[in-house]
Design a protein that fits this description.
Blueprint (H helix, E strand, L loop, with lengths): L2 E7 L5 E6 L10 H19 L9 E3 L4 E6 L5 E6 L5 H21 L16 H12 L4
Antiparallel strand pairs: 1-2, 1-5, 3-4, 4-5
Helix pairs in contact: 2-3
């Protein structure tokens, strides 16, 4: 299992966090906006086709990578790019754990972080917690 990168978007569609690990190529300018638009469009199409109206987008696979998608009830969206062999159910479980652990303790409960448009996650505490979680799951 190879973890390439992670994007976290707020409810406004802003990229509030990005980190890469074993990425084969450099990041093109504006990729965060492209990834955000891509998952928004796929989620919208998925919800239009769903009988429940909530959609069912969990992962999209290309010949080169797999994009795992996770969304919270509060509107945070995550795009986790991995190799094609990553199990989708496992990735969903890890992303849910990320929001219950490092995200809640380092972002949600942080008195200096405001959940407003244009505010990004800064500081190393969240990044270190994310690395520790992914290491414990043997993803990096």
């Amino acid at each position: 299992m190879t973890l390439f990168c992670i994007y976290i978007f707020n409810r406004y569609g802003d990229t509030i966090f990005y980190k890469q690990w074993k990425r084969p190529r450099s990041v093109p300018e504006g990729e965060g906006s492209l990834v955000g638009g891509f998952i928004y469009t796929l989620q919208h199409i998925s919800s239009q086709m769903s009988t429940t109206g909530t959609g069912g987008l969990r992962a999209v696979q290309t010949p080169f990578y797999k994009l795992h998608y996770f969304q919270t009830l509060t509107g945070y969206r995550v795009a986790l790019l991995t190799d094609k062999d990553m199990n989708t159910a496992f990735a969903q479980m890890v992303l849910a754990e990320m929001f219950k652990g490092p995200f809640t303790s380092c972002v949600t409960k942080c008195p200096t972080y405001t959940h407003a448009q244009g505010v990004v996650i800064s500081g190393s505490e969240f990044e270190e917690g994310l690395d520790a979680l992914f290491r414990s799951k043997k993803m990096i």
